[in-house]
Amino acid sequence: MENNKQSNFIKRKLKEKIFLAAIFIFSLLAIIPLFLILGYVFINGITAVNWQFFTQLPTPVGEPGGGMANAIVGTLIIVLIACVIGLPIGILGGVWLAERGRGKTGFFIRYAADVLSGIPSIVIGIFAYTLIVFTMKRFSALAGGFALGVIMIPTVTRTSEELIKMVPTSLREAGLALGVPEWKVSLRVVLRTAWGGIFTGIMLAVARISGETAPLIFTSFNNQFWSFRLDQPMASMTVQIYNYAISPYADWHRKAWAGSLVLVMIVLCITLIFKRFSKRINYG
Amino acid sequence: MPLIRLNSNISGDAIFRATTYVFALIIPLLLLALFFSLLRGALPAIMHFGPKFLIDMSWDPVRETYGALPFIYGTVASSVLALVVAVPLGLGCAIYLSNAVSPPSNIKGIISQMIELLAAIPSIIYGLWGIFVLGPFLAGFFEPLLSATLGFLPLFQGASNGLGMMSAGIILAIMILPTIAAVSREVIDAVPTVLKESAISIGTTKWETFMLAVWGPSKAGIIGAVILGLGRALGETMAVTMVIGNRPSISASLFAPAYTLASVIANEFAEATSDLSLSALIELGLVLLILTVAVNGLARILVWKTTSKATL
Amino acid sequence: MDKTKRLEIKDLDAWFFDKQALNKINMYVQEKQVTAIIGPSGCGKSTFIRCLNRMHETVQGARSAGTILLDGENIMRIDPVLVRRRIGMVFQKPTPFPTMSIYDNVAAGLKLNGVSNRSQLDEIVEKSLRQAALFNEVKDSLQKPGVSLSGGQQQRLCIARALAVKPEVILLDEPCSALDPISTGKIEDLIHELKKDFTIVIVTHNMQQAARVADFTGFFLLGQMIEFDITTKIFTAPEDKRTEGYITGRFG
Which CATH number fits domain A53-278: 1.10.3720.10, 3.40.50.150, 3.80.10.10, 1.20.1250.20? Predict the structure, then answer.
């Protein structure tokens, strides 16, 4: 009897040990790809990145040298367009949801933002195509920026709403008690107080859309030359990397790795810096 | 004369309120516009092919016959394969990182940050890595090994060049793992401490505590997290396009190439030659839209139910 | 005591949704005097003071009715923003704006209302900080964030902020309840000083505080004004049994 209990206990303990070991090993397995991916990108990319890469235009097949300068600038411009379209809707929509979104309409809008956030980016690319490319009869930076703008709206809306709601009512009341009109209190006291956190959310959204490829392939398309016209096709880092990666040329593969290294550095730096901030938000 | 002008501000408030309201309303309007513009774009194909489109096998731009079945199959199969790999890993991670079996620690913090980073890597980079690292590894080592050992199963038969269903499934698994891990962890951490403590107080081991007190209340939410991961996998484009082989066929073997809805759109959209082929591609987009919205809706209901109940 | 009545409150009612929080309040506030409102918690004293500058109605489900005359003009019919410029308020917990420096906090009311003349602002900020007895403590650190000050200093900063817009009446809603005794003493001294220039209404749960600082005192119970008189009268010879019960500590 005693013996039986003892062996039962050992069995139970063994089960616990296996369980704990399994979840720990699974966690380690889950992060191995991170090292593999970053490692390969770094090793393959570092040898191909040089000064030319940042300053020159792409060269045709077989010609050595050349870079991605126009694509780097292109990504910047397209992301900027996305911000111009997405941020006002996201931030002001968030303000409305936080201040008066308690009723049915608020629920409906929040639900719409949720649905929008789950839609694959390529589908949003089709939307931008039918809305802008199809009407203008040509690929354009504007269409690409619009697609990325739509993609960032749900994230920005939700962070804005949540962070504005975290601002204590007492601050709003203190502003009102000074005889300041409500709208100014909303903008210059409440939104100003929440701004640090909202900005963090915006930067994380920017990091995410900078790495988007699918919605750009048939909206902003690509361009081998310098172009600053918003109604013309424009190069972007991601589409350029894609074109290089699926080409049959070893030199272009090297450039794809180089582009990936630069892209990963940008995206991960923004993410790391601002994730750190986002965990520290507290208005006490 | 008073320092502050004593003008009325009623109008300022009204303008501000109206402006924010209009911007908030743009969000559902965009969603509607998205749905209807896809529907309108797909209309010629819907009229031309009818419901047969969904079950037709052929995709031939030369003869203008288009069917979605191989793409629907490829999308669902690659995503399910991804779940098979990602669910145990993601769930293991979630349990380990949660407070259910052990208190927060430095190593947990580091691992959880790394998983967040994994989620931040752009899709295109997964694809690049898939083509040049994962593909050759599968073709040169892993797939021959599988066919030598488990080759009696139709799943692991046939030639392999590394680009096919299996590499797509693995890449997708890595990409959706952070979603599954993060959401499951949230759900697990929402289980009230009282429940865990009452289990511990009757002398349970950690495994028993988890099964007794945590698994039950968090089960539905974890399923929700898994479905949320599925939703992400269904719509994932670039990485899959680069590694799945892009051939519209249905094969029993995981080594064989396949094609997904998102991939064919990415590959052919910019070069669509006729109005009908463009419309057929938009209809594929519509199918993908409906599929992901339905899957995400289901996931959200499950996650929302468990986390809101648990906060009581 | 023959001074003008600055505020006159007639038949003031207030509600939160269906629940009536104030019932037919009638009283007045004399110019350059301190009027205290006392009563047990939940008696409606905070609701009452928040009605006086139309802050009450900013809460969801809150309504009020009745007449509040400021120099004979019914504030219930004026734009609440204009009312609040003439009747300032300081809250229970110090509420400095976290993104603003000490200077900007004091100047906030003016800046947000479009005053941008630097020398004018400098002058008003200094004057307000002096009036709030804070200037000497912060004159070398005006650009530091307002939240870096101690609790008592923060509350005086909020008083300075309220003074900067030059209100005629200042409402203090339990201004010392979050402060230590020394900071409380400083605020009470400050109230004595401010009386020279401003009309003050203070809500307090602390009877001794009312006795120390107020010229007039009103006693509230269950949303009704039980008694209103000169402070010494209330504390020495109250007419109502319930007032007597409260000030002698028998309930509340």
Answer: 1.10.3720.10
